[in-house]
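Input/output pair, single chain:
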Amino acid sequence: MANISWFSRITWGALLLGMLILIAAPLLSKIGLVNFRASFIGLAIGGAFAVIAAVVAVFGLIRPLRDQGRLNTLIAFLGGLGIAGFLGYMVLSAMGKPPIHDISTDLENRPQFVSIAPREYPDGQPFTDAQRKALHEVGYKDLKPLVVSQGVETVTNTAASVLEAMGLTIADVDAATGRVEATESTFWFGFKDDLVVRVTTTETGKSLVDARSVSRVGLSDVGANAKRIETFFANLSSALSKEG
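Output:
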């Protein structure tokens, strides 16, 4: 019984503490009590406790425990391994994305924010424009503008409706000039990303839709801004096709 009690306390204590930290870190960031760097440190600490739980559980599984103790240890091992594996996957995914947070379908003439203040670099711009464009091309070379047949005003108003349906908060809509600005707050951390949509008329009379999405914190966005634009374009195309 002593063996069962010792391993149960260590494995479950480490696992539950890790889970608590993993829940608290993004929550404290969302309500503004800690900055995003502190919340990421919290994730690392929570992950470390999950690894500790899994490692201790391994030693428990190779010891002659009773059936109930072995089951408890196995559950703790799987829980710790699952959490550590998920965090490891997130880190590897982040490492595979370029360290930029300002994503646009037009790199030469990026859509400009009017109502929302653009993101500033408190520590100075880490890349030259040429370096940023090169990173953008490598990471998001398939991100292109959307061409639709409807007029500018129709596309702009539909774009605003689509963004609102996606959960973004609309900051400004100017159908006459073809501009929509909106902000999205992430569920867990409460990070805010700003999006501006620009709609212009092509030489053939169709509408060209460009979008730019910018994160307010961090150097890398882990691909979130590009994914947001791709989702928006897909939803916008679907909405416009239904309108005819």
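The chain has a mean pLDDT of 85. The first helix runs from residue 2 to 30.
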